[in-house]
Design a protein that fits this description.
Pfam families: LacI, Peripla_BP_3. The protein is α/β, with parallel strands linked by helices and 328 residues long. The protein has eleven helices and twelve strands. The protein has helices at 6-13, 17-24, 35-48, 54-60, 81-94, 127-135, 160-173, 189-205, 221-229, 244-256, 288-305, and strands at residues 66-71, 98-102, 117-121, 140-143, 155-158, 178-183, 208-213, 234-238, 265-269, 283-284, 312-314, 318-319. Strands 2-1-3-4-5-11 form a six-stranded parallel β-sheet, sandwiched between helices. It has a four-stranded parallel β-sheet with strand order 7-6-8-9, with helices on both faces. Strand 1 (66-71), helix 5 (81-94) and strand 2 form a beta-alpha-beta unit. The chain starts with 5 loop residues before the first helix and ends in a 9-residue tail after the last strand.
Length: 328
């Protein structure tokens, strides 16, 4: 037998299809029905094994406990988005929410309205599409701070500035006075936050700081030796999605024959790429799984309780590591 229709239930119960629709819809309009008729319809539905059409249920209700996830970054290949999705899944399950994944198509973002609200992940989510959703009052949360759209996009992000400042403070306590910070040319909010934290802490500690924007190309032994001649004793490296900058730095240090940390201290503002060997690199953890869970809670507060969205910053636990040492 195919899908059971409301007409089938009406035939078995001996009532009109309109009556079946009213009963199965919970009689939200307050139509007067006898209890006997209601029970007869429910008995017929149970007898026939009726299962409500989920699409029809969605159209008839303003809420279906379904949260969307639209990711514009690597999520299923071990990239930085993977632990975020794990956190999203765990918190959604805890709150009794189902998830629906939307592919990253900038021209079709409007389809996320099939869900009660949507989480967005990745720095390339188009601002115009987010602005349209905000204007329509559709609940959204962006994982990662957005500096565009007048700061109106509700977001959850890591406190990169405070965590980066803490690493610089560690270097200062170890006696370092000349520090160089390597960061990629891309000017993203996390990159700006990291640099702000580094500059603020360096100024407070009286350090001489040099910021170099590079993707790692051309970074070699001669460059490292030149920096060492200028008195550099510590090197900070920005965490990036590809890890290319960190790998280039490690390769240059090796070619220059510089020992870490006995000759030069090294720290990553975040964590090094997976599979990195040798001593544990000093830095901090980006709480990606916690970001996913916090984003779901923020979206649920909007959808379920109508709470006005307020962006959040999560602390980044420090990683002591073994690559920061006192200056000889």
């Amino acid at each position: 037998m195919g899908r059971v229709r409301q007409a089938d239930i009406a035939r078995v119960a001996g009532v009109s299809q309109a009556t079946v629709s009213v009963v199965l819809g919970g009689n939200r309009t307050g139509v007067r029905l006898s209890e006997r008729t209601r029970l007869r319809v429910l008995a017929a539905a149970e007898q026939l094994g009726y299962v409500p059409d989920p699409v029809a249920k969605l159209l008839a209700s303003s809420r279906n406990n379904l949260f969307g996830v639209c990711t514009f970054t690597s999520a299923f290949t071990g990239g930085p988005g993977h632990p975020v999705l794990a956190g999203i899944e765990a918190e959604a399950a805890a709150l009794g929410k189902d998830l629906i994944m939307f592919t990253a198509d900038p021209d079709r973002i409007g389809r996320v309205r099939l869900a009660d609200g949507c989480l967005f992940l990745g720095r390339h989510v188009p601002a115009a599409a987010l602005g349209e959703l905000l204007a329509a009052g559709f609940p959204i949360v962006h994982i990662g701070r957005r500096s565009d759209l007048g700061g109106r996009v509700p977001s959850v992000d890591a406190d990169y500035a405070a965590a980066s400042a803490e690493v610089v403070t560690r270097l200062a306590r170890a006696g370092h006075r000349r520090v160089r910070y390597l960061r990629e040319p891309d000017d993203t909010p996390p990159a700006r936050d990291r640099e702000h934290g580094v500059r603020t802490a360096a100024a407070e500690a009286g350090l001489t700081l040099t910021v170099t924007r590079t993707d790692g190309a051309g970074l070699g032994a001669a460059t490292i030796r030149g920096w060492r001649t200028d008195g550099m004793t510590a090197l900070l490296v920005e965490e990036t999605e590809t890890g290319a900058l960190f790998h280039a730095t490690r390769r240059a240090l090796c070619e220059a024959g510089v020992s870490v940390p006995s000759e030069l201290s090294l720290a990553v503002l975040g964590r090094p790429p997976s599979g990195t060997t040798g001593p544990e690199i000093s830095g901090f953890e980006v709480p990606r799984r916690a970001l996913g869970r916090a984003a779901v809670r923020l979206l649920a507060a909007q959808v379920d309780r109508g709470v006005a969205p307020a962006s959040r910053l999560l602390d980044c636990p420090p990683v002591a590591g073994e690559t920061i040492a006192a200056v000889r």
